[in-house]
Design goal:
The complex is a heterodimer of chains A (483) and B (102). Chain A contains 15 helices and eleven strands. By secondary structure, chain A is an alpha/beta fold. Chain A starts with 8 loop residues before the first helix and ends in a 9-residue tail after the last helix. Chain B has a domain of 38 residues: Histone, subunit A. Chain B contains three helices and two strands; from the N terminus they run H-H-H-E-E. Chain B has a two-stranded antiparallel ribbon with strand order 1-2. Chain B is flat. Classes of the chains: A alpha/beta (483), B mainly alpha (102). The interface between A and B is large, with 66 and 58 residues.
Chain lengths: 483, 102
Amino acid sequence: MIDVSTLTLKEIVSSLEKEKFSSEELVLAYQKRIKDVDEDLNSVLEISPTAQDDAKKIDKARAEGKSLGKLAGVPVLLKDNMMVKGWGNTSGSQILEGHKSIYNATVVERLKKAGAILLGRTNMDEFAMGSSTETSHFGPTKNPWDKKRVPGGSSGGSAVAVAAGLAPIALGSDTGGSIRQPASLCGVVGLKPTYGRVSRYGLMAMASSLDQIGPFARTVEDVAFLMSTIEGKDSKDATSVELKDTSVPELMNPSVDGMKIGIPKEYFLKGMDKDVEKLVMNAVAELEKGGAKVEEISMPHTEYALATYYIIMPCEASSNLGRYDGLRYGYHSTGNNLAETYSLSRGEGFGPEVKRRIMLGSYALSAGYYDAYYRKALKVRSLIKQDFDEAFKHVDAIVTPTSPSIAWKLGEKFGDPLTMYLSDIYTITANLATVPAISLPCGFSKDMPVGLQLMGRPFDEYTLFRIGMYYQNLTEWHKRIPV
Amino acid sequence: MPLSNNDVKYIAKLARLHINDDEVEQFSEQISSILDYVAKLQEVNTDNVPELQHALDVSNVFRVDVEEQSDENTRKSAIKNFSNSNGDLLEVQSVFGRNENL
């Protein structure tokens, strides 16, 4: 059987083309690895029962010399909030237990068109609300580098699966850091694309003005390749955007010579983890050696980002989650009248973090508080975006840590929501400002991975890929795998 | 600003969310501490600052208004997802009633 534990997307595509192994062999090898390894990790909720047959079809088409898509025969895992027709997608929530998706998300359609094999669905914080994958109704996911620690979240299942070699690539969603933060804590690459780059159709919504789907992989090159198959305008999502040329040939020869890189002083405050700071600055020094010009910049509204986020996100979420009424899908609890049925179904079906955010959002949007909270937050969001607009007049990319610390112990922050929220402090600004941001491994502290975050101009993922590939060509961090 | 237990019960009612007495206590404490934290936004001068209403600068995205039928299986699956049905009809409790407590 093939050893899939360290394979990259690029290696797989090349090996399938050269017929070193078949897609079916590959799928069987990943399925076996999931069975062997994932019992302890709990990153995969369900393996698709049709994956092997889907792979056989691709193998047959290849043998017949038919033209194949860019991801033909490549297995991919999906976060459980993306709809796949016929799958029991739950978003990690009890309230969707028993639900069967009746259509495909646009990203799913595009993956299928590219020939990808949908391998299964991954664990996540309930409705993507959490930073540790501990709020899932189906139990916490563990960090493969130390199973006593969290993987980050909310896309913890997808991050762990890629880190542990259970799939070469996976998709997650990022509303305030839910791709980048677990990528950082698990030692893989994760991208939150610019808002509007990837269709949100078929993604179970949390906060519609912040949510984006994006890829996980071991290398920046693989992330860029995967993006090219899922991005672009979709008539089913009015906020998706027609992109100019999205081909990435120049990426093959990345360089940072002459590039301007900004280090925002507000992200490097006293009290931050010294190891994290050192590793990030080491990475910056590497870029400088390559000819990048590094300068300190100021983004004065950074300290208000978390407060802004924790108003806007729950407001949008409380509205989006109104659809879970106990009638249309999943969990149902009958009361004496309709209002009571709604209330009981939702009260019993949702977990504590989801309830907390629905309550917070309902409060901030209620009569008398709307101006003080919601409208105020929308104004501060403008100021945060202006900080980015101003910075990008002077620099091509902004470098920060992805997470203020390495992965913490399971349960450590679980009872204290505000402390948990603070772990997103470096990632939420990109969502508020709608800019693209990528996390890639830049070293280890106490044998746990640390992530470097690069943020760029809206729709300029290309620059992030160039810097990321340059850095990964020089370093070996992304080649380390958990034992 | 601390949130009283009655405030919490009122919000839960607005949100159609049944919560028990323990949760009322817990949420009033936790949500109060989050509200204390987000109150720092009041420090920011936002005079003449526009609200960021749209994450993306596009408006009026049009498409041709043609009906797209879903296939029979999709329709049936949607009905199957529903909590109660009677043939092709979706069954719910009455919306208006004498003893409604809305």
